[in-house]
Write a structure and sequence with these properties.
The protein has about 230 residues and is of the alpha/beta class. It is built from 5 helices and 8 strands.
Length: about 230
């Protein structure tokens, strides 16, 4: 089915475009969208939740992250990890998915040369982006409901980025233990500690709180470099 998608373009599209990118385990289903308000010399690659639990690039939290960043002047790329949707390959517990992310980032850098790279992820996607943020040279990082305890994801050996970093956690999350995430953030070196936003009465999938999540993201990133270009520039 991936053959029905056009191949990856040589320039960043000026309107929404779905395409197939050659990945390390086969084709990856991707979708690129330009910023809708203002413009920064930045591109964000966003990763979805756990593939084996039905996660995909069309998850509502992923699409809200995407919307928030596009409204903040940032071009975005979402994609399906291997084995999801029209992406080929088999689930690989974060290892192969890291290679998938690297392939998408390489394309984004090719078509947006010199742009700052922001990485964002929800749940499992936040694990994949965090574990690769330093290696990929991320200039900004957004982690939504990171599974910092349990579910088999080991955050302890991850090299922490020095870039601006936002962590958003719902205090009523039924999948990721909120206090474990708060404790993990508190345990990090002060100079690497992210901005932590605790959202009250908020579940793992941000039911009825997606617009609040949008506001949190837009507020947090408004002063991240690069700041929006002046009007008329």
């Amino acid at each position: 089915m991936t053959d029905l998608l056009p191949t990856a373009p040589e320039t960043f599209p000026d309107e929404t475009l779905s395409f197939a990118l050659a990945g390390p385990a086969g084709k990856l289903e991707c979708e690129a969208k330009p910023a809708t308000e203002g413009h920064r010399h930045a591109v964000a690659v966003i990763c979805h939740p756990l593939s084996t639990d039905g996660g995909s690039m069309h998850n509502k939290v992923v699409t809200m992250i995407e919307r928030s960043l596009r409204e903040s002047g940032v071009d975005t790329v979402i994609f399906n990890f291997r084995s999801v949707g029209r992406s080929e390959g088999a689930f690989d517990s974060g290892h192969g998915e890291s290679d998938d992310l690297a392939a998408v980032v390489a394309w984004a850098r090719k078509v947006r040369p010199g742009a700052k790279l922001w990485l964002a992820g929800f749940s499992f996607g936040s694990y994949v982006t965090l574990r690769n943020a330093v290696a990929l040279g991320a200039d900004g990082l957004i982690s939504i409901a990171p599974p910092a305890a349990g579910r088999g994801w080991d955050f302890a050996p991850i090299e922490l980025p020095a870039c601006p970093w936002l962590v958003v956690m719902g205090d009523a999350d039924e999948i990721v233990e909120p206090q474990a995430v708060y404790d993990w953030v508190d345990s990090l070196p002060e100079d690497k500690r992210p901005e932590l936003v605790k959202m009250e009465e908020t579940s793992h999938f941000f039911h009825r709180r997606l617009m609040d999540l949008r506001g949190v993201i837009k507020h947090a990133v408004k002063d991240w470099p690069p700041v929006p270009a002046p009007v008329g520039a």
